[in-house]
Amino acid sequence: MIAPDLARWAVGPLAVPVPVERAALRHLLDGLGNALAGLRSGAADPAVRVATGLGGPAESTVLGTSTRLSAPAAALANGTLVHALDFDDTHAGGLVHATAVVLPAAFAVGEQVGASGREVIDAAVVGYEIACRVAGAAPHGFHAGGLHATMVAGVFSSAAVAARLMGLDAGSTTNALGIAGSQAGGLLAFLGTGATTKQLHPGFASQAGVLAARLAAAGATGPETVFDGPHGVYDALASGAAAAGRVDTGVILRGLGAEEPATWQTTQIGIKPWPACQLAHATMAAAQVALAGPAAAGVAAADVVAVHARVHPDSAAVVCAADRDLTRPASAYAAKFSLPWSVAALLLEGAVGIETYAVANLAKPEISDLASRITWTVGQDDGVVAADAAGDVELTLADGRVLSGHVDRSPGGGSAALSDADLLTKFTGNVGAGAQALSDALLGLAAAPDLTEMLALAAAAASAPSPPLEASR
Fold it and tell me: What does the mean pLDDT of the chain come to?
């Protein structure tokens, strides 16, 4: 069975290779920056208010504040903060927002137990591996069934992170994983509405994982067959993918803990350059390439009269869905999940940033007009997962010329990984004053005795005047 073996690895001795530690720190840095931007935006205010109301013993800090709550309550707030703007990282194979369900549990429980920075990093690596592997065992399988893979996989990663930091043994950790499975879910019903439930999913998952570990520590038990079945998470929540032969639970343990970086999923997570659904990014990047090439000299976005894209079938099902208005999105989140609207905004405004998805922009007639003239062909998956697929675009100009753009994959991950300099630029744009000191503290976490200094610097940065909103070009 998978859960007992996974639990033994999760709480056992861990030798983290340098490239894996570096990747984990980059993602924690990105997640912290996104959380502070989310705090300033107010997008996560309901979750923060509710978490604060839950109170509890002063165990863990709400990121960017001096408020300390119970660890489960802080995890709820912080998971929502990291994901509030949809600017957080994505693992292509599992299509899962890994940091949004790893950082909240690692920081909340790490602070609660007084863990060292080294211990927090190791727990985070455990969380990254589990989130990516559980989701990657059913590529697009949870989404195809109408569920958010981040929440489905996130309950398991958060439970394992909490279990390791709490010092649980393998048996209790197996129970924690089993308990967490009964809290997996996260409906995609928000896509066609103005609902903000997607922002809450990582908060739910982070809180559920911490609670699962606590319940296991208190003697509650969970099914060790939570991954294998019968009636396990894949049987129940990815049955369509399983019936189509698209579930491989062997992914969860295959190569786990091997020293070669290629076997560590932590190094395979991409960092977003734009705060929109990652499945639209390859098309957005290809459109940029088309308008920036030599053949486009002297061409302005206003000269584009039509756009045609080739889109991976799994991407089309999410960002080109015909059951909602993709040209006049009902909410900021609906705009982030509209390939036509996001491509049109990027072409016309030359950049996409947090402010692009402000409510006032959603009704801009020029964006809606160009979005209505964007069409697509659903291509073959060619054995490539949607988030790793190439982007191909043709821009038709008013004079009849056609400009083509191609990218091998979306920017931010894989062969197109975000550079350290670009990551720091993104972090600084999200954090503002105090970004350098906070970055130094987080990237130096391995030598820190605990999380106190880093959390204090985050609160100081969040209390400074808001940085100007930056757009990514």
Answer: 94
Residue 261: pLDDT band with limits 50, 70, 90: very low
pLDDT over 60 at 279, yes or no: yes
Q: How many CB atoms lie within 10 A of CB 80?
A: 30
Question: DSSP 3-state assignment of 391?
Answer: strand
Spell out the domains of the chain, with CATH numbers in brackets: 2-270 (1.10.4100.10), 278-411 (3.30.1330.120)
Q: Which among 401, 309, 292 is positioned nearest to 347, based on CA atoms?
A: 292
> Residue 311: enclosing H or E segment and its boundaries?
strand 304-311
Instruction: Compute the distance between CA of residue 239 and CA of residue 181 in angstroms, rounded to an integer.
Output: 15
**Helix ranges restricted to H, 320-431:** 332-336, 339-349, 359-362, 365-371, 420-431
Residues 59 and 76: beta-carbon distance below 8 Å? no
Query: Up-side HSE of residue 230: CA atoms within 13 Å toward CB?
Result: 0
C-alpha 152/C-alpha 202 separation (Å) is 9
**Which residue, among 113, 133, 118, 91, has the nearest Cα to 210 in the 3D structure?**
113
Instruction: Provide the token pair at 356.
Output: 């692009």
